[in-house]
Write a structure and sequence with these properties.
Layout lengths: L5 H7 L5 H13 L8 E2 L2 H8 L3 H13 L3 E4 L3 E4 L29 H8 L14 H7 L9 E5 L2 H12 L6 E4 L4 H10 L3 E4 L1 E2 L2 E2 L1 H9 L4 E4 L13 H11 L5 E6 L20 E5 L2 H4 L6 E5 L1 H10 L9 H12 L1 H27 L4 E2 L6 E5 L3 H9 L6 E2 L12 E5 L7 H16 L8
Parallel strand pairs: 5-6, 5-9, 9-10, 10-11
Antiparallel strand pairs: 1-3, 2-3, 4-12, 7-8, 11-12, 13-14, 14-16, 15-16
Helix pairs in contact: 1-3, 2-4, 2-14, 3-4, 5-13, 6-13, 7-12, 9-10, 14-16, 15-16
Keywords: Aminotransferase, DNA-binding, Pyridoxal phosphate, Transcription, Transcription regulation, Transferase
Pfam families: Aminotran_1_2, GntR
Protein name: DNA-binding transcriptional regulator, MocR family, contains an aminotransferase domain
């Protein structure tokens, strides 16, 4: 049994609050830096090494116990608990289809909500599209000078409103592929003709965008961070090339930053060069929680004004409580630390899952900032059906493309995957067998 020294932990853990200490230790336990079975220092010794109160460390230990990561034995000290593979609830319990986040990696919202309820102006009569504390927190991190701002009820609604603001009757729009299936379905509901724009390693292909603009596209919708991409995050060189294609025309630009603070790559913009034609959507649901229900839209004034009118005829606005809560979370160092660690964990899940798939002989595509794995298969529909019979529910690649693809793929969300090599090898084996047609339904 290893005994972890207090000064060793103090050097490895940067946080000095109960929430932060617990979150840092969770990462160190999860990645094996502190192996299962290790005995941790006494609360008193660790408090002295950290320079914090005994109560702070006790609260951190309590949080780790609640998560099943440590146990305290009578007269035996506190030990890291070995993960029990038998506790894995099964693949059917995980969302591998909709790319929803892992709630265990999100910061607590209760403190921010309480703080928000006490904010000045809450429940004042009238609408406020964006409260000043949120604007103050967002504006310095916005990649171009926005002429106007608003909030919406989440990233999905924000993207829909930005799109409605940008489309024009009778004209198609250009959309980077692959795109979220739900978004493509919404465009179909709007009756909008969509021209798919393929990508290479640097981003959307300029010649394809030029052809779409020549065909009359009123807007270009793209995801510069590549959260859904098979291969790219938008490069600086490609920004210049796309700006050159768009410059001189009238097409609006819609930028979707759906991962927000969870993005592991620089999320570049066309708005710095074309601010009067760009509207950007920054989402926070994956980082902070779905019920925060607050995304931010900023950019060209006429596009933001159209988006405001598109939301219940201009009569709707986000709750000030939720806006103030987001503002509080964005500047709370404990919450920021939790999100920073979540970003690392999500990246590890993508890397581990990709390695497992490749070890099983599968060809996998994944962009540098993506939370989605694209696995090539001979017949995507047959493979998806075979997997679903084993409780593994994934999507087919075709739902994410407007343009028919020569390569068939399965789309697997990595956000909720376990960081367990044995379980990932099991999943990869199921996918490989489904791809080969060897995964059959067992009959008694």
């Amino acid at each position: 049994m290893d005994v972890v020294a207090a000064d060793t932990l103090a050097a490895a853990v940067g946080a000095r609050t109960a929430v932060g200490i617990a979150a840092d230790l969770e990462v160190l336990i999860g990645d094996g830096t502190i192996p299962a079975g290790s005995r941790l220092p006494t609360i008193r010794d660790l408090a002295a090494a950290f320079g914090v109160s005994v109560g702070t460390v006790a609260d951190a230990w309590g949080a780790l116990r609640e998560r099943g990561l440590v146990e305290t034995r009578r007269r035996g000290g506190t030990h890291v608990v070995a993960p029990d593979a038998s506790e894995f609830p099964g693949w059917a319990s995980l969302d591998l289809l909709l790319a929803s986040p892992d709630q265990a990696l999100q910061p607590r919202m209760d403190g921010a909500i309480v703080q928000a309820m006490r904010a000045r102006g809450v429940n004042a009569w009238g609408r406020e599209q964006m409260v000043e504390p949120l604007r103050a927190a967002i504006a310095p991190r916005w990649p171009f000078a926005a002429e106007a701002w608003m909030t919406a009820g989440g990233g999905t609604e924000g993207l829909w409103l930005a799109t409605v603001a940008a489309i024009e009757p009778g004209r198609p729009i250009a959309v980077e592929e692959p795109a979220p299936p739900g978004y493509l379905a919404s465009l179909a509901d709007l009756g909008v003709e969509v021209i798919g724009i393929p990508v290479d390693d640097d981003g959307p292909v300029p010649d394809a965008l030029r052809a779409a603009l020549d065909a009359g596209a009123a807007a270009f919708v793209h995801q510069p961070g590549g959260p859904f991409s098979t291969r790219h995050a938008l490069s600086e060189a490609r920004v210049d090339a796309l700006v050159a294609v768009l410059d001189g025309g009238d097409a609006s630009i819609v930028e979707d930053d759906s991962l927000g603070p969870l993005s592991a790559v620089p999320v570049r913009t066309l708005g710095a060069a074309l601010p009067h034609r760009t509207i950007r959507v920054l989402a926070f649901c994956r980082a902070y929680g779905l019920d925060l229900r607050t995304s931010v839209l900023g950019g060209a004034a006429h596009l933001v004004e159209r988006a405001v009118r598109a939301r219940s005829g201009g009569l709707a606005s986000n709750s000030r409580i939720l806006q103030h809560a987001l503002a509080a979370l964005l500047v709370d160092q404990d919450a920021v630390g939790v999100v920073d660690r979540a970003r690392i964990r999500y990246g590890a899940r993508v890397s581990l899952a990709s390695a497992a798939m490749r070890a099983a002989g599968l060809r996998v595509e994944v962009g540098p900032g993506s939370h989605v794995l694209w696995v090539e298969v001979p017949d995507e529909s047959a493979a998806a059906i075979a997997l679903s019979r084993r409780g593994v529910v994934v999507d087919v690649g075709a739902t994410s493309f407007v343009t028919p693809q020569a390569t068939q793929r399965l789309r697997i969300s990595a956000a909720q995957l376990p960081e367990d090599e044995a379980l990932l090898a099991e999943l990869a084996d199921l996918v490989a067998r489904a791809a080969s047609g060897a995964l059959r339904v067992a009959f008694a």
